[in-house]
Amino acid sequence: QAKAQGQNHYHFFSEALQEQVELRLSHEQAVRRVVQDKRLSLVYQPQINVQTGQAVSIEALLRWPDDDSLGLSPAQFIPIMEDTGLIEQVGIWVVEQAAEQILALGHQIGRPIRVAVNVSMRQLYDERFFDQVTEVLRRTGLPADQLELELTESVLMDDPGRTRDTLEAFRRLGVSIAIDDFGTGYSSLSYLRRLPVNVLKIDRSFVVEIGHNPESESILHSLINLAGALGLRVVAEGVEHPHEHAFLRQAGCDELQGYHLCKPMSMANLTDWLHRQGDG
Ligand code: C2E
Ligand code: MG
Ligand code: MG
Ligand code: MG
């Protein structure tokens, strides 16, 4: 009896596992298909200067095709692209597409605007990446100082020596480097100071604590002060409420990003939004 039950359990477990494996395989196939058919698109979310209210940078974010029933989120399809090695080819497409679109936007509104692009570890470790980005800048005409690369702490800490060379090369070009999701990893600011980084993006998990957790508020204050002392620009991510906005402004944050200010939008909608803001 016990043995039979055990077998049942095993059977049940393997079926669940089987299902997971099949789901993953079907997602993987879907991702390959969507990449091959070039059906991915970008949406754009501004980073707003706290003092002027102006959109100074715009982050490009990948989106699954609207007309595809699977409706995968970046949290689902980016890891698949990273595992399958599709991220290198998609990643450079993102840089190129974003550069072209933001350059055109800048011409339309009559002022230069910076574009921020997310970069995965695999991309940064790809020897071709630096040359490909340089080539995109040359081809599109986007000035290097209008490009910002967002890397997570884990990418920066994984192999700091190897990372530093690549990042320094980008810095020499004039490209800025941002640490995304800051506070979720284990790195210290004093350590990060040794890496060529110019922007700190404070993770949303700190922002949601504003008004609820005095300890997190103290951490935010010291993070923002320390970053300022180190000459880093500080951006807060995921600002959803007016009280968060008010706190971050008072704390001395440079730029804010989040649904409270502006959701990620198509380039057409973003252009309208900027015009309504009195931009251009
Ligand atoms: P991330 O770079 O930290 O981007 C911020 C995420 O927060 C985005 O999610 C954005 O849509 C969302 N967000 C913005 N404002 C708010 C807010 O007020 N509240 C909440 N709850 N969320 C907000 P998204 O677009 O789903 O992207 C998730 C992650 O996928 C990104 O996190 C980034 O790590 C990755 N990703 C997106 N596009 C790319 C890409 O082109 N290349 C790479 N390598 N990764 C990408
Ligand atoms: Mg980002
Ligand atoms: Mg982030
Ligand atoms: Mg993130």
UniProtKB/TrEMBL annotation:
Boundaries of every EAL domain copy: 24-278
UniProt protein name: PAS domain S-box-containing protein/diguanylate cyclase (GGDEF)-like protein
Source organism (scientific name): Tamilnaduibacter salinus
Highest classification ranks of the organism: Bacteria, Pseudomonadati, Pseudomonadota, Gammaproteobacteria, Pseudomonadales
Residues of the full protein shown: 410 to 689 of 689
